[in-house]
């Protein structure tokens, strides 16, 4: 029994201050981000998708909206799809005027492998895989879409592929509104695919911090 679970990263966020917004409320898609969500909806249209769920963050739910309209599906909210927790939420992150120049933040940087500044990578992967298993069961024999965030999607992929969960953030293959697809065969993941339905849009000059 083949089932496919698509992890869709949300579109670009309006964030002119360039802060790490993490789980903070009030961050919405930019105009380009909404176009990215529409591009993802067009890419998913025609597939055998029977389940659609989203992270509780506004940007994820806004990315799910055109998909729900296109596929005529309700959007379920799953807390396990949320962005990773991060000590630096609400701050800019850098050496100049960013958080790195302030000594009070330095104790959070001692272990990049866990990481010490936020939710452990292993914990992120576990909650994501649990959410995926539930939608896989709900969509058995069909396909499902889960709208989430870059770090959770990328760490989950690395976990499935047997790679170290520690990584360089600049090397993540998880563009804005990208789709990472996991094919299950009788409950076991046998294939991972990647696509960028909004690739042309995501290569435009980006809103800082998005």
Quick description:
By secondary structure, this protein is of the alpha/beta class.
Description:
By secondary structure, the protein is an alpha/beta fold. It has a single domain, classed as 3-Layer(aba) Sandwich (Rossmann fold). Strands 3-2-4-1-5-6 form a 6-stranded mixed beta sheet. Helix 2 links the parallel strand 2 and strand 3. Helix 1 packs parallel to helix 2 and helix 3 packs across helix 4. The longest helix is centred in the middle third of the chain and has 18 residues. It starts with a strand and ends in an 8-residue tail after the last helix. The C terminus is likely disordered.
Helices and strands, with pairings:
Layout: E1 2-9, H1 31-44, E2 49-54, H2 58-71, E3 76-77, H3 121-138, E4 143-148, H4 150-160, E5 179-185, E6 188-195, H5 199-202
Parallel strand pairs: 1-4, 2-3, 2-4
Antiparallel strand pairs: 1-5, 5-6
Helix pairs in contact: 1-2, 3-4
Name the CATH superfamily assignment: Phosphoglycerate mutase-like
Largest sheet at a glance?
6 strands, mixed
CATH architecture: 3-Layer(aba) Sandwich
Structural class: alpha/beta
Low-confidence stretches: 206-210
**Computed Rg:** 17 Å
User: Strand sequence of the main sheet, in spatial order?
Assistant: 3-2-4-1-5-6
User: Helicity, in percent?
Assistant: 25-40%
Q: Which sequence of SSEs, written as H and E, runs from N to C?
A: EHEHEHEHEEH
Shape: globular
CATH class: Alpha Beta
Number of helices: 5
> Which topology does CATH recognise?
Rossmann fold
| Beta-strand fraction estimate | 15-25%
Q: Please report the distance between the alpha carbons of the first and last residues.
A: 38 Å
- Compute the number of strand runs: 6
Mean pLDDT: 88
- Integer count of domains: 1
GO molecular function: phosphatase activity
Pfam families: His_Phos_1
InterPro entries: His_Pase_superF_clade-1, His_PPase_superfam, PGM_Phosphatase
GO cellular component, one term: cytoplasm
């Amino acid at each position: 029994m083949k089932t496919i679970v698509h992890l869709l990263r949300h579109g670009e966020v309006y964030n002119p201050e360039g802060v790490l917004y993490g789980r903070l409320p009030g961050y919405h898609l930019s105009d380009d981000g909404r176009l990215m969500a529409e591009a993802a909806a067009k890419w998913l249209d025609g597939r055998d998708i029977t389940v659609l769920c989203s992270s509780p963050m506004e940007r994820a739910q806004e990315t799910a909206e055109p998909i729900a309209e296109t596929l005529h599906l309700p959007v379920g909210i799953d807390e396990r799809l949320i962005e990773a927790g991060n000590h630096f939420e609400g701050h800019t992150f850098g050496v100049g005027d960013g958080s790195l120049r302030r000594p009070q933040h330095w104790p959070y940087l001692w272990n990049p492998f866990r990481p010490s500044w936020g939710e452990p990578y292993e914990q992120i992967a576990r909650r994501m895989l649990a959410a995926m298993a539930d939608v896989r069961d709900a969509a058995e024999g069909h396909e499902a879409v889960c709208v989430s965030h870059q770090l959770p999607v990328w760490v989950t992929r690395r976990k499935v592929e047997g790679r170290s969960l520690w990584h360089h953030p600049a090397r993540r293959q998880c563009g804005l509104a990208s789709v990472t697809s996991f094919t299950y065969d009788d409950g076991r993941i046998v294939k991972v695919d990647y696509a960028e339905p909004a690739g042309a849009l995501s290569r435009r000059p980006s809103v800082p911090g998005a």
